[in-house]
Design goal:
The protein is an all-alpha fold. The chain has a single domain, classed as MetI-like (MetI-like fold). It is 74% helix and 0% strand.
Length: 285
C-alpha cells in the first residue's frame, strides 16, 4: 500500500513540480554549457576552458565573489537574529499584536527597487536623515551616506526586506512550542536566554535553517539593491555578470559568473545552515 500511495503522490505532483524541475534543470544546463563555450549567440559554439580561465583569473571576479558572500552572510544572520526576539514576543497574542505583526511584515509587499529608491531619498545629501542630523546639531553640513564603501546601506535594505520573511517562518515554529515545556523550564530555574538556548532554538532549528538558506540565496543574487544603493568601488556577482554581458558582449564569461553565483548560493547556504545546527549542538553554546 505504501508504494501505491507514493506513486499516487508522485502522479499528483508531476504536472506542477515536474514542469518546475524541468525549467530549472534546463536553465542550469544551458548556463553551464554556455560557460564552456556552447550555445554561442554570435558564432558556432565549441568546448573551451578559456572563458572560465579569464573569469577565475580576474581580480574583479574574486572581489565580487567575496563581496556577495559577505552581503549574503551578514543579511541572513542579521535577519534571523532580529526575527527571533520578535517571534518570541509575538508568540502569545496581546492587544494590538495582529496589527503589529502586519506592520512588521509590510516590507514583504514592497518591491526591492522601490524600497531602495525610498531609502536613497532618506539618506541622500539633502535627505531626511541629513536634515535631522543638522537640525539636532550633530553636523554643520550634510554627510555623504549614499553608496557607502562598506555597503551598510545594502545590508540595511537586505535585513529590512528579509527580516519579515524570517519572522514569518520563525513565528509559526515558536508558537508550536507547548507552554508547559517553557513553564517547566522556568520552574527549574532556567532564565530567558537558557530557555532560548536549550528549548526554543533547538525546536525551531528547521525554520531557522530555512530562513538562512532562502535569505542567503536571495541576498547573494540580488541586483536591485546593489545597483541603486551599493558601493561604487565593487560590484556584486549579479552586477558583474550583467556588466560582462552589456559592456563587452561576453556572454560565455557572464555565464561562468552566473554558474559561480549558483555555486555560491548553494554552497554558502548549506554551510550557513550546517553551522547553525552545529552551533546548537555544541556544549559551549
Amino acid at each position: 500500500m505504501n508504494w501505491r500511495r507514493t506513486l499516487l503522490i508522485l502522479a499528483l505532483l508531476t504536472p506542477g513540480l515536474g514542469v518546475i524541475l524541468l525549467m530549472i534543470g534546463w536553465v542550469t544546463y544551458v548556463a553551464i554549457m554556455q560557460s564552456f563555450g556552447f550555445y554561442s549567440l554570435t558564432e558556432e559554439g565549441s568546448f573551451s576552458l578559456e572563458h572560465w580561465q579569464k573569469v577565475l583569473g580576474s581580480k574583479a571576479f574574486s572581489r565580487s565573489l567575496s563581496y556577495s558572500a559577505y552581503i549574503a552572510t551578514v543579511s541572513a544572520i542579521g535577519s534571523v537574529v532580529l526575527a527571533y526576539p520578535l517571534a518570541i514576543w509575538l508568540r502569545r497574542p496581546f492587544k494590538g499584536s495582529l496589527a503589529l505583526g502586519a506592520v512588521l511584515k509590510a516590507p514583504l509587499f514592497v518591491p526591492g527597487l522601490v524600497a531602495s529608491f525610498l531609502f536613497l531619498n532618506m539618506i541622500n545629501y539633502h535627505g531626511i536623515v541629513n536634515q535631522a542630523l543638522m537640525w539636532v546639531g550633530f553636523t554643520d553640513q550634510p554627510i555623504r551616506m549614499q553608496n557607502d564603501r562598506d555597503a551598510w546601506g545594502v545590508v540595511f535594505l537586505q535585513i529590512w526586506k528579509n527580516m519579515p520573511f524570517a519572522l514569518l517562518l520563525l513565528t509559526g515554529s515558536v508558537q508550536a512550542i507547548s507552554d508547559e515545556v517553557l513553564d517547566a523550564a522556568r520552574d527549574l530555574g532556567a532564565g530567558t536566554f537558557a530557555r532560548f538556548r536549550k528549548i526554543i532554538a533547538p525546536l525551531t532549528v528547521s525554520a531557522m535553517q530555512a530562513s538562512l538558506i532562502i535569505i542567503f540565496i536571495g541576498a547573494a543574487g540580488d541586483f536591485a539593491f546593489q545597483v541603486t544603493a551599493g558601493p561604487t568601488n565593487v560590484q556584486s556577482m549579479a552586477q558583474y555578470m550583467v556588466f560582462l554581458k552589456d559592456s563587452f558582449g561576453r556572454w560565455h564569461q557572464a555565464a561562468a559568473v552566473g554558474v559561480s553565483l549558483m555555486g555560491l548560493a548553494l554552497l554558502g547556504s548549506l554551510l550557513l545552515a550546517g553551522a547553525a545546527r552545529l552551533l546548537l549542538r555544541s556544549s559551549k553554546w
